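In this supplementary section we document a worked example of the pipeline. Step one takes a protein sequence of length 204 as its only input; no multiple sequence alignment statistics are reported here. Step two produces a three-dimensional model, which step three serialises into structure tokens for compact storage. The input and output of this example are shown verbatim.
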Amino acid sequence: MPKYRKQDTVMKSYNGDKDNLKKHVLGCRGISTVDIIIIIVASIVIIVSGIFLFTNFRTLQQVNEDIAEMRQIIEDKQDTLDRLIELGQSEEALKADYEKNKLYVPEIKDEVGIISDLTGIVVNEGGTFRTITYSPEIEMENGVIDVPFKIRLDSTYEDLNSILNEFGRTDRLYVIDSITIIETSDDGLVLNTEIEMHAYYKMK
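The serialised model returned by step three reads:
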């Protein structure tokens, strides 16, 4: 009969436990070559998917930035267009104002024109023009000459209102400083009024 040594029995027992441990950790069959290939392929797929997603994210971010930049360019161009339109309209308005101001502030004093304006308005509105008295002219900083003067007229209260309104509708600028009732008729219907006014003209 063969003889079994105690050492051999111990080694077999140890090797058996070791094989059982491997089977327990790795499964009944262990890791096969197919499993390793599947793990490698899955890892590659995950890595490639991650790279693809990251690349798409960067691309989408760049597209959004390009869209935002294009939107800003369009808005800037629209603002520029709006300003050009506004400037064009303003230029027309300025031209109209300039032509109008040339009438309001002529290049000559034209005392005859002032008297013609005032007497015509007073008479047309039912009043009586009495006198006009000029004060010394005042040279202003912008090259415009201020022509102060006073007029006296007779009118009813209603006619006086109409006269004052018409002073603002002439082709020349008139500014009223003060209105003073000097005296009234016995019946109180006619007012003798003194009006301090200014006319203007440009220095040549």
